[in-house]
Write a structure and sequence with these properties.
Keywords: Methyltransferase, Transferase. With 292 residues, this protein is of the alpha/beta class. It binds S-adenosylmethionine. The site of S-adenosylmethionine (SAM) has 18 residues, from helix 2 and strand 2.
């Protein structure tokens, strides 16, 4: 995924090796093929980078990276101590995380005070050149694919609006301060007049080349085993990617915040900060149906 830089927010201060005798510690959650972590490891040779994913990583890793296999919906690996990391990064993982605020709490557990969280997620939408979601009339291939995907994702109890809610989730967390968010339109393909945008467009295009067919199992399950529907949706989206007849975009969102000094509560959910104009939420317990 194309992001503005390796890190978001005041990472340079947080990762400045002169600020501590111990190596800086970085955690990448849902690392995938580890491309981001390997780039960081090669650039910050003195840092120790831990990476986590559900599935084993196939590539050879630099000596300053350690892989952990874990479903983070069950929490981060228990061997990861509290208040240990200087920076926690997670990019494009919401599809596997039904309770994202709970994961934000886990990030708070392992971050040091003043440590930095970096989160990156793309909207589950494809947009036309007016910035509106694509329609079935102009972009049927994209439209059917994104609708099927959203249906399948909702079917898995994943909130399809999660990318749009992430800024508020981070702001509501009692553990983070100085929360900032930004969004960026990314062309699908190199069709703009701007060289940098075209570079991003090529990366987005390449990502989609793999993403479009990769959701086929999710779609097959959603269509109750009728794999011909899943095949058709994938093929039509692929055709629109390969031979675009109009300019389309994706929208990526970038979030960062500083871990504050509030001590992590191991006793379960903590009250969230009140939103403007709303009463402070009462602490929830598992038995009252609150977030675990
Ligand atoms: C779309 S890939 C993104 C990979 C990488 N972050 C990147 O941006 O290149 C999502 C990754 O998150 C991992 N993932 C999803 N849900 C997860 C979970 N519950 N626990 C651990 N890893 C998870 C997937 O296995 C996959 O490798």
């Amino acid at each position: 995924m194309a992001q503005p830089g390796l890190f978001l927010g005041p990472a340079r201060d947080v990762l400045d090796p002169s600020s501590s005798k111990k190596p800086k510690r970085i955690l990448d959650i849902g690392t995938g093929n580890g491309s981001w972590a390997v780039e960081v490891a090669n650039r910050y040779l003195g840092a120790a980078i831990d990476i986590v994913d559900l599935v084993p990583i196939a590539r050879e890793l630099p000596s300053n990276i350690l892989f952990f296999r874990q479903d983070v919906n069950r929490g981060l690996p228990p061997s990861m101590p509290d208040a240990e990391y200087d920076l926690v990064h997670a990019r494009n993982i919401q599809l596997g995380i039904p309770d994202y605020p709970k994961l934000i709490d886990e990030c708070a557990r392992v971050l040091k005070a003043r440590g930095l969280i970096n989160l990156i997620e793309g909207d589950w939408d494809i947009f036309d050149s007016d910035g509106n979601p694509v329609t079935p009339y102009k972009n049927p291939g994209w439209y059917n694919w994104i609708q099927a995907w959203r249906g399948a994702v909702a079917h898995q109890n994943i909130d399809v609006e999660a990318p749009k809610k992430t800024e508020q989730w981070l702001k509501d967390s009692p553990y983070f301060s100085e929360v900032k968010a930004t969004a960026r339109w990314m062309p699908i393909g190199p069709w703009t007049n701007d060289a940098e945008m075209n570079r991003l467009g090529e990366i987005v295009w390449e990502n989609l080349k793999y993403l479009i067919p990769s959701i086929r199992p999710l779609l097959t399950e959603y269509y109750a085993g009728r794999s011909e529907w899943a095949d058709m949706i994938v093929q039509h989206a692929w055709a629109e990617l390969a031979s675009p007849h109009s300019h389309v975009f994706m929208r990526w969102r970038f979030f960062w915040g500083k871990r504050n000094s509030r001590v992590y509560s191991p006793d379960g959910p903590v009250p969230r900060k009140p939103r403007k104009g709303k009463e402070r939420e009462k602490p929830q317990t598992e038995s009252s149906g609150g977030r675990a």
